[in-house]
């Protein structure tokens, strides 16, 4: 069972780093004020002010910054400022031996799926949740509160309305997942995570429907779907199509592969690239219940 880092308490120190795309000073400043409102002390990593083309500094700057926060004994959580692209470029150069002596929470989503999965492969829980650059986005108040609850050990169950593609049932298992593109790209790497007996959650943004199908084919062919305990399908925001339509929505594509198996499935789960991006604890054992009235996810 993955190890749970200590939950935060008032006056703990947390760090903001950017392992992928660059972030603006205004975005960081807004997040700092919110975190201070949670009675936390905030440390800004050097990557939050660094720029190298689209990245938050060079690979070395981003790696060094994250390594420093992983090792720092007084840092109790690391919040990844934003996604984009770049985390997989540095992940193999990180040393987690210091982190293993003093585990701490790491939180983020999108490109940070790589870090969430890597930590789970090493045996640690982490948080898939909203990131500092959009802490103050309109409509995101509930998602931000769910992140605070996860960090402080106050997580609540989630309920979602019924969806016509849902498959009823009850499942228990550890949560694993995140961005579909990243999950597909991690297959066969040191950051790959087994899915058998687990509840998988998926989301993505601005992907062509054909690519979503291609990635689902890959997950299915590599056995990632075969022995799932359950499946949560989140936001597939701004999906694109070719001049000749693919002929299925993102949810219909996913259903075509999920329906080959018998695990419960809940569509429309509030996770992904939209304001309602509720925090999920990767590696935490949970129970998924899907009925004709809707779905509920609660930690065991």
TrEMBL record:
Ranges that cross the membrane: none
Positions annotated as active site in the UniProt record: 110 (nucleophile), 203 (charge relay system), 273 (charge relay system)
GO molecular function: carboxypeptidase activity; serine-type peptidase activity
GO biological process entries: proteolysis
Pfam families listed in its UniProt record: Peptidase_S66, Peptidase_S66C
CDD domains given in the database record: Peptidase_S66
Residue span(s) of domain LD-carboxypeptidase N-terminal: 14-129
Keywords assigned: Carboxypeptidase, Hydrolase, Protease, Serine protease
Domain LD-carboxypeptidase C-terminal: start-end pairs: 172-288
Family, similarity comment: Belongs to the peptidase S66 family.
Record's protein name: Muramoyltetrapeptide carboxypeptidase
Species of origin: Hymenobacter chitinivorans DSM 11115
Organism placement in taxonomy: Bacteria, Pseudomonadati, Bacteroidota, Cytophagia, Cytophagales
């Amino acid at each position: 069972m993955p190890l749970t880092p200590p939950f935060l308490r008032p006056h703990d120190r947390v760090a903001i780093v950017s392992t992928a795309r660059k972030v603006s000073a205004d975005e960081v400043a807004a997040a700092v004020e919110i975190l201070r409102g949670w009675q936390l002390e905030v440390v800004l990593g050097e990557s939050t002010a660094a720029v190298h083309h689209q990245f938050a500094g060079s690979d070395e700057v981003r790696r060094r910054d994250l390594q420093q926060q992983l090792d720092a004994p007084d840092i109790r959580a690391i919040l990844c400022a934003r996604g984009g692209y770049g985390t997989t470029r540095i992940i193999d150069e990180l040393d987690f031996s210091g982190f293993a002596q003093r585990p701490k929470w790491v939180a983020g989503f999108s490109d940070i799926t790589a870090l969430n999965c890597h930590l789970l492969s090493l045996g640690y829980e982490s948080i898939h949740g909203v990131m500092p650059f959009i802490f103050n986005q309109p409509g995101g108040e509930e998602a931000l509160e769910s992140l605070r609850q996860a960090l402080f050990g106050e997580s609540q169950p989630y309920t979602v309305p019924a969806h016509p593609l849902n498959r009823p049932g009850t499942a228990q298992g550890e949560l694993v997942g995140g961005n579909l593109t990243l999950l597909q790209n991690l297959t066969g790497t040191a950051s790959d995570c087994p899915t058998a007996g687990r509840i998988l959650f998926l989301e993505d943004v601005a992907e062509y429907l054909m690519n979503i199908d291609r990635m689902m084919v890959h997950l299915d062919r590599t056995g990632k779907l075969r022995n799932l305990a359950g499946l949560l399908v989140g936001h597939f925001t701004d999906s694109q199509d070719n001049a000749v339509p693919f002929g299925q929505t993102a949810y219909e594509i996913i259903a075509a592969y999920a329906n080959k198996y018998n695990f419960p499935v809940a569509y429309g789960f509030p996770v992904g690239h939209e304001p309602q991006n509720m925090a999920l604890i990767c590696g935490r054992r949970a129970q998924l219940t899907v009925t004709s009235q809707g779905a509920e996810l609660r930690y065991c």
